[in-house]
Give the backbone structure.
Amino acid sequence: MGILIVDDTDFDRNLLRSILLSEGYEVSGLATCGEEGVRQYHALKPNLVMLDLIMPDINGIEVLRRIRADDPDAKVIMCTSVGEESMVDLARRMGARGYVVKPYIADNLLGAVKRVYGPPSKTEIS
Amino acid sequence: MTQVLVVEDEAIVAESIASKLRRYGYEVIDTLPTGEEAIEMAGKTRPDVILMDIHLAGKIDGIQAADRISGQFHIPVIFLTAYADEQTIARAKEAGPFGYLVKPFRERDLYVTIEMARERSKLEAELEAANRELDSFSYSVSHDLRAPLIAIDGFSQILQETYAGYLPPDGVECLSRIRDAANQMDHLIEDFLRLSRVTRAPIIIEKLDISHIAREILGQLATSEPDRKVSWKVEDGLIINGDPGLCEIALKNLIGNAWKYTNKTDGALIQVGSIMQGQTKIFFVKDNGAGFPSDKANLIFIPLQRLHSHNEFPGNGIGLATVQRIVNRHGGRIWAEGEVGEGATFYFTFPEGSGQ
């Protein structure tokens, strides 16, 4: 349930978390590297993964591939400072549902989350 | 004008120092009798240099005051003291002073010590700024270099998986080569980043049981490559004083190498142990693998120097350079012995105290 955030940068991970929480979304997991992201995906079965591209162990595209290999319906939004067309295209081809460029602009970010995940459900606002 | 704060509990001595300083053209901000007042004044006025007596009137002595001042405000502190027993000197050293003057001192020594402290403090600040810049540079370089590699690998993978039917086998093979090369470069970037982090990461010394760490690393290697048949002997109770993170990286590299280079050896054996040479304990990691020509023992610590081809034994020649920097930063030494086909032994020392 909820949203899983996978990002090796503390600042980006925490910022993303607070934006999502303030809008009423449930953040169910925080992973600080790719391997942990894959593990937490299997443990938590989140409705959405916010996934960083460049991490020290395995990169976001590989994480995306591993997650979708087991769960072809997994919803993933790539979040990265690399906004080149080739990267956006690669993420889309590998099955990402959305792409958000850092530094985060709350409106763009929430727009993408709403498109892929839907609005925050009432039970999630506590 | 250079601003100096004098901390000295004997008023006559304090005034005498102050007047000497003024004669040399320094501005004396104040003369204070206690460490507590010195800390407060240092925060308020940020003097360029502080002259600090060790025995002071207040609850804390000059060494404690200097410790807090250098931690909070990065102001160079020079100790002044009438007598210096070994214990005091040892404590003063820990506080990282920028100079030490034994009273009575000559005017000229006072002047020279202050100027040296100012210069060193300036250089340290510059070095810190340069390191910060290097950190952010390394970070952005790694991001910028890795992103295109991810694209190269990712699109090659799509070609391989989705369009393999349109390519002759040789074309599919070419795609594998492209992906191997991209991954190799990705590892190279990561290893370079690690080498640069290892060179600058702060060292926090703890007592470490390297027998235990070595066994864990060997266990992990055995789990990740269950087909390999490697035996190992690890001496019990090998203890060093070192930074846990850095020492683990060093041991992982040394033992990982032993593991890798015994790949083609029947009856592969890795030994981790120690020998005494006089008063010095020398640790070693020994294998009976591929080895290296004995006259090349010094070359293997140079980054990117490899004595085997990538196809024979994959690697990029950064691991041992990383190990050497870690050992050197702890104040230890590392060297290697080997013969082709007869294995390699890496010896290293770790001093009892802390390095830097």
